[in-house]
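Researcher: Quick one. two chains, 478 residues in total.
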Amino acid sequence: MRVEQLYKKNAHSWMVMGRDAERREEVIDTNHYLIQNNGRGLLLDPGGVENFSVVAAEFSKHFELANVEAIFASHQDPDVISSLPLWIQANPDLIVYMPKIWVSFITHFGVKLENIRPIPDEGGVITLGGHDLEVVPAHYLHSSGNLSVYDPQSKIFFSGDIGAALLPDDSTNLFVEDFDEHTQYMEYFHRRWMPSNTAKMRWIAEVRKRDVEMLCPQHGAIFKGKDVARFLSWFENLDLGSAWSNVR
Amino acid sequence: MSGNLHTRRMGEEYNTIFRQCVSLNTELHKLVPLAKQMHLLSSNAVSSAARAGSEGDAFRVLTQDIQLLGDEVSECIGDTQKVIAEIVKLASNLAKLFTNYIIYIDLKGRIGEEESSLTSARFFDRGHQMVVEELRANNYKLSRSLGVLTNLLSPIAILVKKGEYLAVCSSVEAASAGEHGVSFEAVSSMLRELVGQLGLQSARQRSLLRDLSDAMEKQQNNQRKLLYAR
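Model:
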């Protein structure tokens, strides 16, 4: 498991964890993010039951997890959030931000409503230790209720499954090294899992309104610097929902 | 014996218990069509008695007992369906809780090995303890539900005896009912077959229930040893 600090200034920081070498072959590799502000923590897409102990143990080395006050779930998938009951058992006061339309589904994991703060379709703001993070709608990319997070201070944009790549098992890079080479690992994922070109264009327009230095997906490598714009252009020209020939 | 070995045994035992609960559930569902057939048979018996007029008077008395038998079997099966549904749910919960138990053990081991960790392994004590308590509570509820199921199934053996007796009585009536004896004998023969099937099912279920209770007992021993080992 690799852990790296993406940003740190004063009491504000971002950390990423990924490339879990211990994971079972059939389990998709996932990235997990921890934002810290003034000693308070927010976990983004903390992952599934499968890797709860690895994620918790790794982040424990870098942060007092008792100070994690909230979890953000970009959508409802098990690789995103099925570890939730274990986090809440450890800290019953934990707040969970999630797309409003998934509340009655995620509660099937055994989570109580009192822990949940539903985020409406239009997005909103999450405040962490006095610092505001923007929640940007990303519906149908891929889930019908899907959210991204933008941090104006660090200029990091957490994109969930957008920008995800199914990397080879021996890949250890946390960042995209060669964008053109990298597209081969992203194309099928986006064409197969994402259904709406309209939703894609709306999301791209939202991202372009913001000053983004890093685009951080839940799977695969992180885009930084000029690769962010490259990714948006590549994504703009991709025909989503078009992987039918491989399905039939 | 090491804690790890007990942990592995407990995991195996929970899987066994869950599989046995599912098998028992399947077997108990086989009783439902038997109860329906018993009701159908009692309706046929009433019709046969009515067609026989005064020659069917004695058989009519038996049809009331056949109807009562059908009702008792249905009632017994209805109650067992509710209890077995609860048992399967509890067994499934136990398997899930045990997975969470193992996850917390693994996590605490990982944090414990890391001297520079900023989070103490004790932070996860609460979650770990909650899982242990839920395991205990589920074990207790499952044992209790198995006891209830055993009590619910025990009258079936008596109902089988009662059915066999009614079949013999029906045959006797058939022998003395002249031309109507043919339809009485058909009822008697069908009743014998149904109670025979009920008897076989009941024996199979008692055997499954015994295996399940044994597995629960073993599991509880393992749990005691595991907690002692830690």
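Chain A has a mean pLDDT of 95.
Researcher: Thanks, that's what I needed.
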